[in-house]
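Pinned message: reference record for Clavaminate synthase-like protein
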Amino acid sequence: MALGWDEFRYTGVAGADRIKLAERVYTASGIPLDTMITFHHEMAMMRNFPRRVLFFGQQPAAAGGQTSFIPSNILVEKLQEEMPEVVEKFEQDGIIYTLHTKSKYIGTSTIDTECTVWQRMLKTTNLVEAEKRALEMLNCDKVKFNNDGSADFTYQMKPIRKYNNKRVMWPRLKSYEIGDRETIVTYGDGSPIPSEAIETIEKIYEENCVDINWQKGDIVLVDNLTVQHARRPGKPPRVVLVSISN
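Predicted structure (tokens):
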């Protein structure tokens, strides 16, 4: 790469519905365009994650479809101001983050559509090897493969990390369901995160983010360690390509 950055590859959950178009170039998420993709750091729940994310606007959406960005440290700072007891609880007890994958893969690729989601993510049907890959690659603390073909990947973690001398909120904190996967997030002691805290977090996102209305040929480069991104619902056609690197 002309900029001299090391190549990074999509794997696991992040790579489940992406198509590699050229060296270092991938399609963006295959999640239907009418669905909001909430704020997140790219590949945040993986053991290895990229330092940089480069977005290229190949085709703007007919309507909507903006990519939104927010410095992750702003979320921590504002939450500290508005609900310091929540930040204290996060730092003291951490969180339990459970990713539940459904039995059947739902995506845009025509390859391996008959496999389960975890088989596609981990690229194996062997349970022993799948567990090994999940613990090593996804960096989860435990995994459970269910009889119906679904799976549960559980993380116990401190959600606030420090990168570049900034305190950032690393995982998604709002439980969600999109396509063939869903998440459940609680405090580390198993108690629910108050709805008021989630509402405050969502308000902070909306009040402090910047929306990019894509024009053909636009390029946006972000520091994945300190900046979160999201995708607004939109109408096709919309093509945004992605390259990740260290």
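Pinned by admin. Summary line: The domain at 1-246 is CATH 3.60.130.10 (Double-stranded beta-helix).
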